[in-house]
Each structure stands twice: as C-alpha cells, then as structure tokens.
Amino acid sequence: MIRMAVRMAGAGGLVVAFFAVLGGMALITGAGVIVESGLRSSVAVQRLAGADVVVSARQSLPREEELPAALPERAVVPDALVTTLREVPGVAAAAGDVSFPAALLDEATAPKGEAAVAGHGWASFALAAGSVTAGTPPQAADEVALRGVRPGRPVRIVAAGRTGTYRVSGNVDAPGIYFADPTAATLAGRTKGPRAGTVDLVALRAAPGTGPDALAGELARRLGDRYEISTGRAKGDAESPGMAAARGLLIALPGSIGGVGLTVVGFVVGGGLALSINRQRRDLALLRAAGATPRQVRRLIAVQAGVASAAALLPGAALGYHLAARFGELLVSVGALPAALPLVHSPLPAVAATSLLAAVVRLASWAASLRASRMSPVEGLTESQSEPRAPGRVRTGAGLLLMPVSLVLSCLPLLMRGEAAVIGPATAALLAVVGLALAGPRLVQLATAALAARLPRGLSAPAWLAVHNTGAYALRTAGAVAALSMVLTLGLSVVLTQTTVVRAKSDEAAAALRGLRTITAPALGGIPHGLLDDVRALPGVERAAATATTTVLTGSLVLGDSSELNPRPAWVLGPDADGVVDLGVVQGGLAGLRGATVAVDESAGRVGQRLDLVMGDGARVSARVVATYRRSLGFGPVVVSRDLAAGHTTSGLDSAILVRGTADLTALGWPGVEVAGTAATASLDGSAEALVNVAVLAVLLAYVLVAVANRLVATTTARRGELDALRRLGATPAQLRSMIRWEAALLAAAASGAGLALPAVPLAMVGLGFLGRPWPAGPLWLAPAAVAVVAVVVWLALGLPARRAITGGGAVKAATAASTVLTVAVPRT
After folding, report:
1. 661 within 8 A of 543, measured Cβ to Cβ
2. Which of 375-389, 671-685, 696-710 has the lowest mean pLDDT?
3. Mean pLDDT of 443-464
4. Strand positions, DSSP E, 58-118
5. Among 233, 236, 204, 207, which Cα is nearest to 220's?
6. Cβ neighbours of residue 703 under 8 Å, at least 6 residues apart?
7. In whole angstroms, what is the distance from residue 708 CA to residue 482 CA?
8. Angle at 727 between CA 724 and CA 729, to 5 degrees
C-alpha cells in the first residue's frame, strides 16, 4: 500500500505536502516552546540559594474562564508568619526578607536593573548564597554590609528614596546592600503605613534529615492554599514577583495568533493535499474502475499524506526550536521579557505539535479526498483532463455574502475608540479573504470573460492564450489569487492597524505632555526624596509633578471588555499634576487626586461614582472617581492617585518627574539622575507589543508565501502534457514562455489588486476612528514592497518550472529546482 501510494503521488505531490507540513510543524513547535516556557520557566535563584523552602504570597488572582491574572507588584505576608513557621517540625531556621531600592550615591554602582531591590535586612543573609569575607555584620542603624568597599569606610547611600551616610561594617560575597534589621524594616515602610507588620517572603532551612520536598509538603498541609510554597528553581520566582507577569505574556502571545495560525496551517496543508489529489485523478478513477472502494481510495490518500508528514516532522521540529529561540531574543530586545527568564526546551512541544498536526493532516486528507473517492470512474476520468467548469453556487453565494459582512465589521472604530475597536477591522479583513477564497472561481471567470471580450485585435497569441487559460482554469487561478491576496491583506491590515494605533497613542501622549521634560533615576531605583523639592526650587521651573506607573485589575470598563478581571497599565499622579499633564479632562479635575481616588476614561465612568479595583499587589480597594478624561489611548483607562498607590507598589517610589519650564535641569547635581528633553517616553504605549505581533505575523505569512510558491511550482510542472500539446500544434518555445509570463502577470495583478482592495475599507475606518482621517499611519512603502514580493514569487514559481518543462527535463527536477530557488528568494523574517 505504501509503495503504491508513493508512486501514485509522485515526487511533485509529495514535495508540496512536505513543505506544507514542514512549515506547519515549525510554527506549532515554536509556539509550543513559548507556551511551555510560560508555564514552566523560572529564573535562577539569586540571593536565597541557601534556603530550602520559600513561603510567599500568591502573585496571581484566579479567574473563572481565563488563566490566572499575574500580579506584577510584590504581594506581602504578615511578619508573624516567621514565628509561626519556626515552630513547624522540620524547620531549622526561618527569616523574613524585605527588599527595597538602594544604591551607592557616590558611584551609583548598583548593577543595572538591581537598584530597585538591592536593599535587604541582615536576617535574610543567613539564608543567602554568600558569606562575610571581612568585617562584621551591620548592627547599628548607620551600618551596612556590601561587597567591593573596604570595611570602615563611610559611604553615601540612597535607600528607599532616603539619602544618608553609612559606615561599611563588613564585606559580603552576595548581591545587595544589607542593613540592620530594624533599619531595613523602617526603610521598607514595614513599621508604619499600609505595609506595617509585613515582610516580602519567609525563607526556611530544613532541619537535618528533612528534605525540601518533605518540608514543603508539611507546610502545604498546615497553610493550605493561602501562600505560595516554593522549592528548587521556583524560589527564583518568589524573589522576583514580576516574572509571573512575564510568563503570562509568553502564554498570551502565541494564543493571540494561535487560532489564525492553526487555521492557516490547515488551509496550507489542505491545499497541498488537494493539489496532490488533483494530479492523481486519472489514476484514482482507474482504481475505482478496477473495483477499489471509496474507503480504500481515502486510505490511499491518507497514506500519501502520512508519508509526506513523517518526512517533515524532524526538520520541522528543529526549525521550530530555532524560531522560538529567535522569538525569545526579540522579546528581550524590545523589553517585553526579562533576560533572566530563560526559555524551556523539552521534547513536549514537538510531541504535541506532532499529535496536533497529525490530526490536521488526517482531517485535511479526508476532506480533500472525499469528492475524489465518491466520484464515478467515468466522472473521474473526465475531470482528470480538466477541472470542473462551473463553481458551486452555494460556495459562491457564501463568499459574496461574507464580503459585505466584513464591511459592516470595519465600522467598529467609528463607534468606539479603544483598542478593542481594532478587533472589528482585523476580523473584517480575515472574513474578506475567506469570502474571496469561496467566491474567487466565479469572480475569476467573470473578470477573465470581461477581459477576453475587450482584447484588442492585434493581441499576440501567447497573451490571448494566457487570458483564456486563466478563465478556463478558474479554480486553479482563484486558489493562488486567494492565498497570495491573503498574504497582502493580512500583512497590510495587521501592520498598518498596529502602526495607526501606536501613532494615535503617541499623538495623545505628545499632546498631553507637550512642553514637558522628564527626570528619571533608574540607577537609584526611583526618584529619591528631596529631588522633587530641589527641582521646584530651580529658577525657571513653572510646575513639576512626580509620577509613576503601576498595574491595576478591573472588570469591564468600556464596550468590548471582558467581565473578568483584566490587568491594565495605570498612571500614578497626585494633585500637583493639575496644570502639568493635559489628559483632556472632561469632568472634574486632577487636583482632586487625593486619598482613595481615581480618574477614568470618559466612557468608563462618571465623576462621583465608586470603582472597585485590585491593585498590582492583589489588594482590593474601592476608589471614588474625581475626573474623567479623553486621552485614554496614551495613558490607559485608569489613573490612580499617589495616596491610593502608596503601599501597593514594589519599590514605593516615583519613577519620574515631569517638569514644565525653561530651567537648567542639569544643575541639580544629583548622581544617577537622568534628564530627557521630552516627556513622550512616559506614555503607556504598546509599541513593543505591536512589534512582537508584527514579527509573529511576518513568520506566518512567509510560511504561507513559500507554501503557495511551491503549490504554483507543482501546478506548473503538472502542465507538461498541456505544454507538449501546444508544441505539437505549432507553438514555439518562445511563444510558450511568453504565455507563461502573461499568465504570471495576470495572476500577480489579480492577487495584488485583491490584496490591496480587501483591506482598504477596514484600514480607512481605522484611520478615521483613531486619527480622524481616511487613511492609516505607517510605512507607505509596505504596499508596493509587498506587491513586488508577490510578483517576484509568482514569476519564479511559474517561469522557472515552465522553462524546464518546455525545453525538456523531468518534471520532478523542475519542481525541485524551482522550490529551492523560491525558498531562498522569499525574504526571511
């Protein structure tokens, strides 16, 4: 059975199926690696390597219909838990740990990214992976222990925003700056305020004879599910709570395009198998005439698909792991993923991709073979010479119906302006492509018939043949047009929609922050106390306000939101922001941002109402709305007051100062302080997320482009009998090559025209909704560049194998050579 199936399919049909499955395996495996990393990846333990078990608060909130919502800010536990855990059998030592921003002011030597959590109490050092190399532990309020500074030397340190002079009591070979425990508790805000009487986590060492897993099991039995109990590499997550949010991003990103990606993979695989079946219609008809049952025919085709799939699994999986690694590097480069969070590479994604792709291939082969297996021998022999001339009416009607439906969805940005509005145009573009694929054969027939009726009398014979061939083989032509136009439509609509939304966000942020300059202090972990007063005291400063960013979780705020709790970026402002930041206030004013208050987007609430929020550390609060504003694209739908955010952020410090005026900010004289000439960077735009989405889509569309090119190669190679017949009728090789070039030009023109027309209305609606003009923002060169790529691919896919078939040489060699050229010619993402 296998040998007969391979011989019947031929190398051309198997090559098309092979490339389709190869690309699909790579995409699914790559997405699986990213998802598995989001579920299983963890950062290496930094300070608490000496602890066997770490007990911390849960850094996520459960949701009924979705994955748990990650809490990016540190959630704390009561310090009484330290005493409770010390009494658990099997615990040899327990220490509460607090972290807060700390850096040397003299040299600002805190490593980049560490300053925000560099300060700690000495109690946790006993469970750190280090030792005292010189001097003694800190005991007095003005003593610290750190590495790299001689004991006895005085140093200036900014800790939790407070500047002071400390004496180095000892050297340690562990990261961080260690203070006496009472001093650390005061600096971290654990003696008064919202976080009084708490610690970040509790680190435990197991008693001799008790293993970490056994101790963790005992703790779980006693504590239940109130706390997170971590061992092994999971201790690194307890040290870095923001990693849970980063892992959530790894899970969400493949899912955001996973449905479209799997649909495209099924479309490409099904198309490749359908082409292979079309090449075998004569043989299949003969098998039916010889007594083969429909089930045996379907089984034969399933074996062919299985052979092509089996050959593509290993190289496809290897390519998938490579793609995942490159995608991880992209996430790190745009700041969407911490460099300390590694990707997890295991066989599971490849195994899962194999199972999923096997189901897709099986379903695609069954669907593609259903008609051929049920066809009578006479009908099969007839269609083996020519495809059906009349496209199905139901198929054509469904396609023509989907196109106007897509126009209705395109109008969503005119009704709402939030980011959820882009769902309408994105769905509209996809529906338009599906409609074109369904109605394409009939549209091709009508278009070519109209063109043929208007051909000039002096038209050359090759051009005349090309026009009539295109219309006569409408199914073949429409399939290529639909696939190529999908590349153009999805590429243009997604990229230009993303760039339009980013432009709208940037414009709103620039308008709100016009004339402002920004002061930041990343080397100090945040804005130190006293810096804002020094800024306001400078001559030429008209107004100055401190700001920070955090994350809040709310239910539905605007139309299109989910009712589940969703994390939203939020600005933190105080009443001093009134007159500094212009949010486009509609009601109320920013001067009312005192106490438990918020400002919200004008469509999300009204002044005076109460809004239930979950802060970034999981604390549930109720806040009163004191202002509504228009510019929510640039700043998110919620702005929380500094009083409300106090005690609910990891660092507890402001991240920037916005300054209006002409003062010389470089005269401040604070080490580690940076001054930017514009405040636009303070906006909460999603340009990094947009870049990631575009990169994922580019890989997907490149896969489609290569798969379509290989289909065209196989289709052209299969026309060897047709070209030989034309040669016998007197056509010269030059005339046949000219005919193929005309066909390529018609195909490229049709695909380009459809690919540019289908996203035109959705993109116009996006432009009107977000920018107030009927065209999107973005690189205008993208459209001609995409058209050029499509034209080159079509020319290579038709011209090279046709030249080989006309001048002689096996069809298999022609298909293989052209496929190799096309694979190299298509640009890499």
Report:
1. yes
2. 375-389
3. 85
4. 60-61, 69-70, 77-78, 91-97, 99-100, 102-104
5. 204
6. 23, 24, 26, 27, 264, 268
7. 10
8. 115
Size of the chain, expressed as the number of residues it contains:
829
Helix ranges restricted to H, 718-732: 720-728
Residue closest to 103 by CA, chosen among 163, 150, 37: 163
Can you give the pLDDT at residue 817? 39
Query: How far is residue 157's CA from residue 550's CA, in Å, rounded to a whole number?
Result: 25
What pLDDT score does 813 carry? 41
Residue 527 has pLDDT above 80, yes or no: yes
Run of H or E residues at 216: helix 212-223
**DSSP state, 135?**
E
Q: Which 3 state secondary structure label does DSSP give 563?
A: coil
Q: Taking the CA of residue 9 as centre, how many other CA atoms within 13 Å lie in the half-sphere pointing to its CB?
A: 31
Smallest Cα–Cα separation from 74: which of 245, 197, 242? 242
Q: Tell me how far apart the alpha carbons of residues 188 and 196 are, in angstroms, rounded to a whole number.
A: 9
Confidence at residue 109, expressed as pLDDT on a 0 to 100 scale:
44
The CA distance from 595 to 643, in Å, is 5
Give the bridge partners for 96, in sequence order: 202
Q: Which stretch of DSSP H or E encloses residue 57? A: strand 53-57
Of 736, 544, 542, nearest to 658 by C-alpha is 544
Q: How many helices (H) and strands (E) does the chain have?
A: 24, 26
Question: Is the pLDDT score of 495 beyond 90?
Answer: no
Residue with tokens 């800790």: 159
Which residues have a Cβ under 8 Å from the Cβ of 185 and sit 6 or more positions away? Answer: 98, 121, 191
Say if residues 656 and 548 touch (Cβ distance below 8 Å): yes
Give the start-end residues of each E strand in 534-661: 541-554, 566-573, 585-588, 597-601, 610-614, 620-629, 638-641, 656-661
CA dist 694 and 683 (Å) reads: 21
pLDDT in tens, 242-285: 776 677 777 766 655 555 666 676 667 676 677 767 667 777 77
Signed CA dihedral, 77, 81, 83, 87: sign only? negative
As a whole number, mean pLDDT of residues 462-483 equals: 82
In the numeric block, the tokens 């609509």 are attached to 493
Averaged pLDDT of the chain: 82
Query: Which pTM was predicted?
Result: 0.77
Q: Is the pLDDT of residue 389 over 60?
A: no
Give Cα separations from 825 to 20, 711, 770, 821 (angstroms): 17, 15, 37, 6
Do strands 143-146 and 201-206 pair parallel, antiparallel, or not at all (unpaired)? Answer: unpaired
pLDDT at 459: 85
Contact between 406 and 440 (Cβ < 8 Å): no
Give dist(CA 304, CA 369) in Å, integer.
11
pLDDT band at 556 (very low <50, low <70, confident <90, very high): confident
- Decide if 495 contacts 778 (C-beta within 8 A): yes
Contact call for residues 642 and 573 (beta carbons, < 8 A)? yes
Q: Are 351 and 358 in contact (CB under 8 A)?
A: no
**Residue that has been written with the tokens 């010269």 in this structure:** 732
Check pLDDT > 60 for residue 680: no
